[in-house]
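User: Show me a protein chain along with its predicted structure.
Assistant: Here is one chain, sequence first, then structure tokens.
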Amino acid sequence: MPTEMPSTAQNLIPNPAHRLMNGGTGPDSSPAYWEGILREFRNHLAIVAARTSQLSALLPGAVAAQSADCLQDIDNSASLVEGLLSCLDAAQTPGGQAISDVGDVVTRALRLAGPGIHRNVRVEIEATPGALRTRGAAVESALALLLMDLGRFAPGGAPLFPDTDTQRSLGERGRIRVTVHAKGGAVRMRLSTSRQARDTPSNWRLALAKALLAPLGGEIAGSPVGFEIQFRSP
């Protein structure tokens, strides 16, 4: 299933992340219709989830077993879209500022990113105790977007597909390492994998993550093995 919109469609849709980074002052920056769009998506996702569960319950046992992978893919895709909608929510409704524990923020990010990370990719965390200035769910949403971006690919940049042969060939090589260092009010995070990350305009996840962190003094830079995030002291 394609995970990116065709370039012809992308050119017809305004870039909300670009507007956010420029103060949201464009002629279509009103959040009213975005709230409606997100609500509509969620309504349809609820229908998909309910119908999938109903279909699974109604199918004869043998047919249900044969269709288990298909039904699971539908459920995973619905969960992934729900997570992406939460990230858009964080961009459209920033929320109030607070000081949060770094570990708690990373844990929430992993929970949000989970459906978008391939099941053969393992995430490892190494974090020093510290606090981070946050605003609503902006930080965890940005981290989740970056984790999903890295977790969609195998080492070397090959797409990860949920087939058995691919899983066997990857073994334990699908891995993302999250390291967090907090010192003197500044926080630095590194998300690393053996896949090379590229900071390109077509990477909308990276663009949205940058827009979410910019108001909090967070800066994201692509590195040869992932992403580095630096939060300036408040």
